[in-house]
Amino acid sequence: MSPDKRKEYWQRNIRIVLILLSIWFLVSYVFSIFLVDALNSISIGGAKLGFWFAQQGSIYVFVVLIYVYVKYMNKLDKEYDVHE
Amino acid sequence: MSVQLWTFIIVGLTFAIYIGIAIWSRAGSTKDFYIAGQGVHPTINGMATAADWMSAASFISMAGLISFMGYDGTVYLMGWTGGYVLLALLLAPYLRKFGKFTVPDFIGDRYYSNVARTVAVVAAIVVSFTYVAGQMRGVGVVFARFLEVPINTGVFIGMAIVFIYAVMGGMKGITYTQVAQYCILIFAYMVPAIFISITMTGNVIPQIGFISTEANTSVYLLEKLDMLHRELGFAEYTSGSKSMLDVFAITFALMVGTAGLPHVIVRFFTVPKVEDARKSAGWALLFIAILYTTAPAIAVFARTNLINTVSEKNYAEMPQWFKSWEGTGLIKFEDKNSDGKIQYVADKDANELTIDRDIMVLANPEIANLPAWVIALVAAGGLAAALSTAAGLLLVISTSLSHDLIKKQIKPDLSEKQELMWARIGAVFAVAVAGYFGINPPGFVAATVALAFGFAAASFFPAIILGIFDKRMNREGAIAGMSVGLILMFFYMAVYKLGWFVEATPPPSEWWFGISPEGFGTVAMFVNLIISLVVSRMTAAPPEDVQQIVEDIRIPRGAGAAQNH
Predict the structure, then answer these.
(1) Of A33, A44, A73, which is closest to B211 when you measure between CB atoms?
(2) End-to-end CA distance of chain B
(3) Judged by CB atoms within 8 Å, which residues 112-141 of B form the interface with A?
(4) Domain that holds residue A75
(5) Do B220 and A67 touch (CB under 8 A)?
(6) C-alpha closest to that of B550 among B472, B488, B478, B475
(7) Number of folded domains in chain B?
(8) Does residue B389 contact residue B48 with C-beta atoms inside 8 Å?
(9) Which side of chain B, N or C, has fewer Cβ within a 10 Å radius?
(10) pLDDT < 50 stretches in chain B
């Protein structure tokens, strides 16, 4: 693989990681901790939204984030022909 | 049949399974012993990782802890799951591509230095020993409560079982035992949770019961619990009492610590390909999330149930489970105003009831009137959780000794067979030390789990991340960062948690930036990061061949081939 291609592959990898980690930060720290009081004024079922994100929602999002990462990287690996 | 007989049968059966697996999966080479021959399917590895990860604390204590902490319990729920996102995105695939046996292997090779390797070995051993002491104790406690044997006898039985499958099978034995242990522990956790959810809310799924109305009423469970808390003078269940900054610091330290724990990282070395390492992290988190999203539901059910059962009720009319747990000393009632009723309130002077938080999970089946075999199942589940984590930690200790110290540093000419023998000796030594700590728990055992995470966050996490993502990071930067991180963490823990070097443990008002010792790993981690970056930029760049390693681990292809040379 040419150095340029290599660099491009790595940059696309970094970009998806940064996007997914921003969502990770958003649900766990912003929704569940920093803005928890504001979100608590909204209800989902019988739970306050901020509280629900802290004890349920963020964990579901974590699982989805890894799933998206696996899907995306498998595609990227094939596109750059670095898969096994 | 009695509960005790059921417990003997079910626990005996599960132990027979573990030993059977040990005989079937004996390790024939160091590769088998260290990384299960690198042939573990990602789903299987995910299951093993989940059992490896979920300890006696997750199984027995966590729901109870949350039930007493309310919103503040969030730090454990997010802290112990969010780290897997970091593992999957930032560590697992690259470490798998690197493809050696241990975490100190990576640190030693990437930072071309046996000093760095030794710092990593010390960190791995400190982290693993602080963590394993609690596990062996947990085994003893479960035995004592359910089979009425002395705690020490329980520790010995636990040691014997782990000894058999860890020493014989190494990572290979541990992996397949952990799969069995995951199945047992998750079944044991979910059955009572589902039954209680049905009783209290009419919903089969506890996660939905959590946000539902109480059965046959139109009041939401969480609203009702907040109301009960207000009446009794407790802080509202859904709002916490810790400072926002501290909640952030603890959650972050636990997440980063999770991603830096050597016994978790090494599980990703056991799969065949880079792609599998990523998938494995996803499976692991999914299997963990089943328990971790159920725990807050159990916490709410148990808390509501408890208050409804005891508050302002006649002591003489308490149900059987109350009496039997009173016998163990885990529930204590003192009729301060002599009215024969139980006052369970926030005000310390008026409160008449003290409850050990571990009861919330252990007594759940009794509270919900479930059959005796379910109670026995919970005992087997608690043992599975403690043993699986203990085994994973013991392996890290034994590998650190045989591979990272003896093979890589003291006697490089060791043959494969001799190294395997040393690995087994290391495992025997580790089991013995863990057993010793289980029988004579050090006074700081309560602090040790937080300590383990703080140390992992302060040492490994930055060194590994920078080793992958910063090509310019060199030996000097990594050693300086890890050393300062470890020492700073140790100092803060020693002074502010254990009260060493000072006359009295300083009160929370003297904490640096208001951050508790549990959350200080976050600060130590950032200090490590900054020192590493600064020192590395002031010293020489790493040699060409090391920069090549970094280039190489960023490309997935060749992970399988690189191992078989």
Answers:
(1) A44
(2) 58
(3) none
(4) 3-79
(5) no
(6) B472
(7) 1
(8) no
(9) C
(10) 562, 564-565
Distance CA B153, CA B196 (A): 33
Q: Is B486 exposed, middle or buried (0-12, 13-18, 19+ CB in 10 A)?
A: buried
d(CA B229, CA B238): 10
Rounded to the nearest 5°, which phi and psi values hold at A48? -70, 140
A58 assigned to some structural domain: yes
Paired residues of B331 in beta bridges: B355
Identify which of B381, B291, B362, B370 has the alpha carbon closest to the alpha carbon of residue B14.
B381
- Report the length, in residues, of chain A: 84
Looking at the partner chain, which of A28, A55, A60 has a beta carbon nearest the beta carbon of B251?
A28
Alpha-carbon separation of residue B100 from B49, B97, B269, B502 (angstroms): 18, 9, 7, 43
Radius of gyration in angstroms for the set of CA atoms belonging to chain A, rounded to a whole number: 17
Is there a domain that residue A84 lies in?
Answer: no
Give the separation between CA B438 and CA B358, rounded to whole angstroms: 18
B326 with B333: CB under 8 angstroms?
Answer: yes
In a domain, residue B87? The reply is yes
pLDDT of residue B448: 67
- Report residue B121 as tokens: 């070995």
Return d(Cα B536, Cα B242) in angstroms, integer.
Answer: 37
- Kindly report the CATH number assigned to the domain that includes residue B389: 1.20.1730.10
Q: B56, B438 in Cβ contact below 8 A?
A: no
Under a CB-based contact definition with an 8 Å cutoff, are residues B370 and B81 in contact?
no
Q: What is the extent of the structural domain holding B91? A: 3-309+364-442
* Contact yes or no for B189/B465 (Cβ under 8 A): no
The confidence score (pLDDT) of residue B442 equals: 67
What pLDDT, on a 0 to 100 scale, did the predictor assign at position B562? 47
Q: In chain B, whose CA is at the least distance from the CA of A67?
A: B282
Q: A24 or B316, which is more confident?
A: A24
Paired with B355 in beta bridges are B331
Site from B49, B211, B247, B279 to mutate, A interface, most A CB atoms within 10 angstroms: B211
Task: Select the residue of A1, A34, A65 nearest B244 (Cβ to Cβ).
Answer: A34
- What six digits make up the tokens of B559? 């992970």
Within a domain: B514: no
Which residues in B218-340 belong to E strands, given as ranges?
331-333
Report B:519-538 residues touching A (Cβ under 8 A): none
Sequential DSSP letters for B204-243? SSHHHHTTSBPTTSSSBHHHHHHHHHHHHTPPPTTS-SS-
DSSP B335-366: -TT-SSB----S-TTT--EEE-TTHHHHSHHH
DSSP string, B71-137: GGGHHHHHHHHHHHHHIIIIIHHHHHHH--S-HHHHHHHHTT-HHHHHHHHHHHHHHHHHHHHHHHH
Helix (H) or strand (E) holding A43: strand A43-44
CA B81 distance to own-chain centroid:
11
Instruction: Give tens-digit pLDDT for A26-82.
Output: 999 999 999 999 999 999 888 999 999 999 999 999 999 999 999 999 999 999 999
pLDDT per residue as tens digits for the range B104-131: 999 999 999 999 999 999 989 988 887 8
Number of domains in chain A: 1
Using CA atoms, how far apart are residues B455 and B258, in angstroms rounded to an integer? 11
Q: Residue B122 and residue B328: Cα distance in Å, rounded?
A: 39
- Is residue B549 in some structural domain? no
